[in-house]
């Protein structure tokens, strides 16, 4: 039996990393749904300039600031993880810092805490097959980013007193200077011949930025109702993981788009690779349907690189 959210029709939602790729898109999606946004950034003047967006400057993991950020809020969305940093920094900000904000939210009566996790927390080694929300997670030798994201999810699960949702996207396609897959990875492919090497048959699990932001906003504003079981919606008072992914694709699809736009040749190689899919059946049952096709996402990618 689903439970109606007590979030108001004009909810106040805190968004950390509001000037980042996912954070900025989430702010826009929330504003479209009538929310008031407290956009948390580290540098003044960098929050999205949108009606209904109020900039808050500082480190969200500072306990005093965290308490002020969440006071009177209906929901919190966390998008920050310093993935290019060393493991100690990723643990301090991702695992410990996000927990500080979650505990502050629980202590002030925030109803929902939506964390942008990643499908990289799943074991996607060769032969692992499809992964859903019950799939095995990575081991401690999986690398700094997957391990600290896994540990952040586990830390959030321990914070009781509010409904927590772990949104797990795979590769995020979408334009932006900080976009890994539309900007940073193509730059490496352009400049470094070794970055052009790949197994064309390896799965390329992806989601478009706009569809990811829409999912986050629907959950944070209470439009996605809580339920008694994770297949119905976020479990009220519990911690629920949900995958978001677009249609099936392969590394060939991505690399041929990038190398074709840049005028370089891909270098295909045979090696063991994951060929499963990130299953988003749960998200679909919650009412989420991606609107951006693979063809449209790759066309946007190619046009951006050509420009």
UniProtKB/TrEMBL annotation:
Residues 13-221 form the NAD-dependent epimerase/dehydratase domain. SUPFAM superfamilies: NAD(P)-binding Rossmann-fold domains. Pfam families: Epimerase (PF01370). One of its GO terms (molecular function) is aldehyde dehydrogenase (NAD+) activity. One of its GO terms (cellular component) is cytoplasm. PANTHER family: NAD(P)-BINDING DOMAIN-CONTAINING PROTEIN-RELATED (PTHR48079:SF6), PROTEIN YEEZ (PTHR48079). This is Nucleoside-diphosphate-sugar epimerase.
């Amino acid at each position: 039996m689903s439970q109606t959210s007590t979030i108001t029709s004009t909810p106040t939602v805190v968004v950390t990393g509001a000037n980042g790729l996912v954070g900025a898109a989430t702010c826009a999606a929330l504003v479209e749904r009538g929310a008031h946004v407290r956009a948390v950034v580290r540098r003044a003047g960098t929050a999205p300039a949108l009606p209904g967006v109020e900039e808050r400057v500082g480190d969200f993991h500072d306990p005093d600031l965290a308490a002020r950020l969440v006071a009177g809020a209906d929901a919190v969305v966390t998008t920050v993880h310093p993935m290019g940093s060393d493991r100690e920094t990723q643990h301090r900000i991702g695992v410990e810092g996000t927990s500080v904000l979650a505990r502050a939210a629980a202590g002030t009566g925030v109803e929902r805490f939506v964390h942008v996790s990643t499908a990289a927390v799943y074991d996607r080694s060769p032969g692992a097959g499809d992964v859903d929300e019950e799939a095995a997670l990575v081991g401690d030798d999986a690398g700094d980013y997957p391990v600290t994201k896994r540990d952040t999810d586990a830390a959030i699960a321990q914070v009781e007193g509010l409904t927590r949702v772990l949104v797990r996207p795979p590769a995020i396609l979408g334009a932006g200077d900080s976009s890994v897959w539309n900007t940073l990875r193509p730059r490496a492919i352009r400049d470094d011949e070794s970055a052009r090497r790949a197994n064309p048959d390896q799965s390329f699990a992806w989601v478009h930025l706009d569809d990811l932001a829409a999912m986050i906003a629907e959950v944070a504003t209470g439009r996605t109702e809580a339920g008694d079981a994770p297949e119905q919606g976020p479990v009220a008072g519990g911690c629920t993981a949900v995958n978001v992914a677009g249609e099936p694709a392969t590394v060939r699809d991505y690399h041929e788009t990038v190398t074709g736009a840049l005028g370089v040749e891909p270098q295909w190689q045979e090696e063991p690779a994951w060929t499963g899919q990130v299953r988003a059946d749960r998200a679909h049952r919650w009412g989420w349907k991606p609107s951006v096709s693979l063809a449209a996402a790759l066309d946007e990618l190619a046009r951006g690189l050509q420009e």
